[in-house]
Amino acid sequence: MPGTKRKCKSITGIGVAPGIAIGKAFHVDNDEIPIVTYRLERESQVKEEIERFKSAVKQTEGDLEAIKKNLPKEFRDHASILDTYLMILKDHMIYNETIETIKKQKINAEWALKQAILTTGRVFESIDDDYIRSRISDIRYVGDRIFRHLAGMGTPKVNCNKERVIIVAHDLSPADAAQIQLEKVMAFVTDLGGSTSHTSIIARSLNIPAVVGLKNVTDQASNGDIMIVDGIEGKVIIDPDEDTIARYYEKQSEYENYIKTIIRSAHERAETLDGHKIKVEANIEMLEEIVAVFDNGAEGIGLYRTEFLYMNRDDVPSEDELFNTYSELAELIAPKTVNIRTLDLGADKFLLTSGKLREESNPALGLRSIRLCLKEEELFFTQLRAILRASSAYRNIRIIFPMISGMEELLQAKAILSRAKKSLERDGIDFDENIPLGLMMEVPAAVAIADMLAREVDFFSIGTNDLIQYTLAIDRVSEHVAHLYEPLHPAVLRSIKQIVDAGHRNGIPVSICGEMAGEPFYLPILLGFGLNSLSMTPGAIPRIKNMIRNIKLSEAREFTQKALELTTAEDIISYLQDLMDKRFSNIFAFLNPPAPIFS
Ligand code: PEP
Ligand code: MG
Description:
The protein is α/β, with parallel strands linked by helices and 599 residues long. It contains 23 helices and 17 strands. The protein has an eight-stranded mixed β-sheet with strand order 1-8-7-3-4-5-6-2. α6 (174-177) links the parallel β4 (165-169) and β5 (185-190). α1 (43-69) packs antiparallel against α2 (79-89), α1 packs antiparallel against α3 (95-105) and α2 (79-89) packs across α5 (130-150). The longest helix has 27 residues, at 43-69. The relative contact order is 0.10. Residues 402, 440, 442, 463, 465-466 line the site of magnesium ion.
């Protein structure tokens, strides 16, 4: 249009949830909070100021409690962040320090709180721990909420949009996101964040396109600006010209057609072009995910991570509580099967407040998982009895032991399982006496003796998240070494081959349930190993099934054979990239490039 020159400004970030949105920008956090400073002249003012601060904290607490109580079901997985915020509110480094500063320096609450936040931030920044450092943004978030109340601004308004919009934010906490009417959101774009940040996880689970880590999108885009969000390529275009808009409408419609196709066929079995059926199952952490399991066409639950029932509580769940949950799950999924993995607590899987886990300098190598279970035998015994009792009704439960590193461990764990079975027999309680037992293959020592272990169990499930971590000595949750966390490292591929071959030679099926299984880029190479099944986050199932239907197993085998001869991950990646471009160019255009995988 004459006289209306478009900015057509393109910014690149990280595409964390695929899809394309074209719409108007809407800032959710664009109102500045004024931080005033003034001295308090009289003792009575000091008292009043402390009361004013306490009241702002109380109001903030009320807001957060209300958000927690009314959390939409889509956000339940993220509820723990609200507990973190509530804890920060009363943390002595913030709460007591602010009060002390008001008293000692006779200064207003805003200034005292700002000092406390800055000091805490500096302390946290100096600690060499990513988890602690990532708490700084949580502290700032809570601080902002208190500032708002001190300034009489109330709670931030994020719900005033009348039409569907693209949410533009500096960062988006689950507490903010939970207050947005999701049906009004076309996409999320933020200055901060990475692929594992809260916004990204939420956007993926809600299937809303998102680009994060854009650095300054909040400065670049004004309210009402037309924007294109390309969650596939991690790009945002502000104020695009007509040609660009037309091009993206086309890309959007191609993407939507692709999604429709894969969703339509999600419930059919996945069979390669040359007639080999691959079972595609779901990984879940909570019972609530069962809807996603059904919606996405999972053929069973390949991995139920049981840790989450032990989270955020001071006690340990009773046998009956566990039994009720496992029974409900077995009933919901029947006649399909569910693999219940026994407790894998420790390392990145939070800490028990009951004191069973202690701080360790190397938690991933410490008292975690099966080691903890063998030490805390009653904890393990109780869980095994609950699983066995739940197996009675539908005979569709299978047990998996995590992180086994040697025969001694496996035999000890099996002995406790036998003890649990005997105790149920004594009590006259029914259970599936042929309940299948599997092993997570995720420790290099287990890979080295895979043939021996295979004789003791009914199936193997490869946990690539940990297998990569332990094989390459790369902490799976450290951003500093994330670039070295390479699923296609020849050592990882050889380990997978060794496990599959050992399993098959001993007549047991082998699956993969690590994140790698749900990443389309790795599918051809994984198929070529001859795996019997794959288990993944439910949302990944339709596209993986779709890809399986577009490839021949013979072709994948040949491909994997050749990949195993290459000596560097780089060569394997470009070999795979070539295959993807040739064979899957129509699909591959719609997939996020494989981001570093760590969960
Ligand atoms: C794995 O290690 O690959 C796995 C599936 O288990 P988790 O991610 O729960 O450790
Ligand atoms: Mg694991």
